[in-house]
């Protein structure tokens, strides 16, 4: 599965998964489509396969259909056409085993974290009343809010609010957690905290399906990703497989740009690009240490040498020919 050989409109991994694949998949969609009144197609024949145990990044620019997809998965909005299963079941049957965060739930500002979660839990018809206190305390502990459990919500920081929203999804044992942009609006510290929390939850065996419009975030947090563009799936697979078809470049920082470019060319590296204070080239099959040795051997002063692997942004640009920007 390589990303670059894909033709537009024919994303790999897009063939509808066989029925028996649903057993290993946390989410399978086939031809899932949502056309809103007024004709706009928000999600266009989407075929997703989310493996159990993955941290699956659902990546796309603003307006690319992420929230609409998640709302369909959670039964909050009906698809126009298409099929889907969650945890191998029709969504309505799976929902008690799914925790979700979509557009932060409304919490009461004057109630504490604990009191808010108790109210939240009381509204859940599948929750066992007698265990609510313990389950709420456990969920708060899970997201690192035990110390702030008695504090009023209005005094929570943004990161604490987001943790509480995730805790609300964790008051019952969940096999699948669906989080719509859980780091939205957080500062770098809060973002790091939520990312760490997602990894911890996944390490406990919960599949996490997390949307984001931040490429770097998905690269850091996720094992798999699907990339959306105006409602259509552009690519999906493991993070490594998504970029496996793209070239890795080497970047040499040096004051001897011309000499370095000549040496790289002699070595057989292609697409050598000199710029101010640095030269980059396609690494191809060359070992970076051999490139470095050759440069130094030819008297080039190497200040830095870095292997630049393709990012998910490169994947997106390579597949769509466009920058990763807001969709119309
Ligand atoms: N209720 C609605 N009625 C009409 N159009 C809608 C509705 N909800 C969403 N849309 C449109 O569907 C498209 C996809 O929206 P959606 O919210 O799913 O995108 P998103 O990927 O979640 O974006 P963001 O990153 O900004 O959250 C957008 O063009 C949006 O304007
Ligand atoms: Mg959204």
From TrEMBL:
Keywords: ATP-binding, Nucleotide-binding, Transport
Pfam families in the record: ABC_tran
Domain ABC transporter: 27-255
InterPro entries in alphabetical order: AAA+_ATPase, ABC_transporter-like_ATP-bd, ABC_transporter-like_CS, P-loop_NTPase
Aminoacyl-tRNA synthetase keyword on record: no
Molecular function as annotated in GO: ATP binding; ATP hydrolysis activity
Keyword GTP-binding: no
Gene3D superfamilies, A to Z: P-loop containing nucleotide triphosphate hydrolases
Family per similarity comment: Belongs to the ABC transporter superfamily.
Name of protein: ABC transporter ATP-binding protein
């Amino acid at each position: 599965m390589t990303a670059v050989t894909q033709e537009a409109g024919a994303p790999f991994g897009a063939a509808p998964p066989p029925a028996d694949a649903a057993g290993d998949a946390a989410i399978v969609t086939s031809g899932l489509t949502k056309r809103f009144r007024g004709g706009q197609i928000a999600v266009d024949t989407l075929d997703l396969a989310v493996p159990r145990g993955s941290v699956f990044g659902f990546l796309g620019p603003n307006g690319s259909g992420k929230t609409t997809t998640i709302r369909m998965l959670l039964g909050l909005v009906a698809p126009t056409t298409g099929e889907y299963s969650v945890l191998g079941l029709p969504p309505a049957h799976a929902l008690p085993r799914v925790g979700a965060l979509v557009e932060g739930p409304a919490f009461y500002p004057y109630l504490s974290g604990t009191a808010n979660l108790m109210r939240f839990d009381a509204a859940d018809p599948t929750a066992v009343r007698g265990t609510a206190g313990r389950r709420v305390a456990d969920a708060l502990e899970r997201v690192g809010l035990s110390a702030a459990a008695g504090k009023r919500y209005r005094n929570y920081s943004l990161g604490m609010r987001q943790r509480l929203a995730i805790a609300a999804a964790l008051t019952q044992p969940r096999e699948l957690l669906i989080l719509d942009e859980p780091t939205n609006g957080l500062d770098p510290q809060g973002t790091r905290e939520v990312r760490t929390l997602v990894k911890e939850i996944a390490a406990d065996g919960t599949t996490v399906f997390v949307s984001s419009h931040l490429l770097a975030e998905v690269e850091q947090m996720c094992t798999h990703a699907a990339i959306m563009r105006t409602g259509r799936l552009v690519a999906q697979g493991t993070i490594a497989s998504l970029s496996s078809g793209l070239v890795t470049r080497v970047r040499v920082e040096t004051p001897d740009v011309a000499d370095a470019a000549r040496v790289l060319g002699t070595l057989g590296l292609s697409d050598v690009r000199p710029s101010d204070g640095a030269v980059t080239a396609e690494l191809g099959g060359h070992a970076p240490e051999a490139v470095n040795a050759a440069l130094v051997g030819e008297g080039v002063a190497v200040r830095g040498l870095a292997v630049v692997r393709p990012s998910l942004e490169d994947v997106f640009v390579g597949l769509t020919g466009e920058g990763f920007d807001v969709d119309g």
